[in-house]
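Journal club side-thread
Mid-discussion, someone asked how the predicted structure for our own chain would compare to the paper's figures. Pasting it here so we can look after the session.
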Amino acid sequence: MRLQHATWQEVETYLQRATGIILPIGSTEQHGPNGLVGTDALCPELIAWTLGERHDVLVGPTQNLGMAQHHLAFPGTISLRPSTLLAVLRDTILSLSRHGFTHLFFLNGHGGNIATINAAFAEVHADHSLQGQGSPVELTLHNWFAGRRGRELAESLYGVAEGGHATPSEVSLSWFACPEAVKSVSLTPRVAPSGSAQCDADEFRRRFPDGRMGSDPSLASIEHGQRFLEAGVADAWEAYQAFTGV
């Protein structure tokens, strides 16, 4: 069940039998010559929706904007400041906690979000600790791209050409989510240069002119995307069960 498609009465009924919710979070940023700008949100969103349908878990709205400042030299990228994303996440957590949700499972599609998500968790816990109260909510972060099954599949399909950004695995999954948006382009070089993304936007574009980092997303395919969906769902469901005890 998707929160956006439910009435408040249906959410209230859900809370009588379960208090866990899956919250997809990603980013809106460039993903190379053939990757979609929405890749980092589309991937966890599809995994979350599939989990919700298969296992009758409530799925919240996707947080589509994240930490993408180093991609801002590429048109279409939208980035939040760390303080902005932290505030959005904190208010999201407090809103859901107020209604009785006790286990918030953030399903993330963007590595650049990790530090700020963990900082938001720390802020929530600090609020309760400083007030001398136990926190009424449990929080966890699961990065779909770091799941064991997904990593093993990427290694078997692409080896070192998986790279670090605009990877064939994430491009494949986003294409499976949006087959009408598949792009066919020529990539030169086939495998992009590698390096650090710890820099400002202009320096990032100098280091990585077409937006890729160590990857060859020409290897991506819709068929691979379906396989990454199954791997991602299995990894995330295993993590969700361990987190909630269901």
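Post-session note: The chain has eight helices and four strands.
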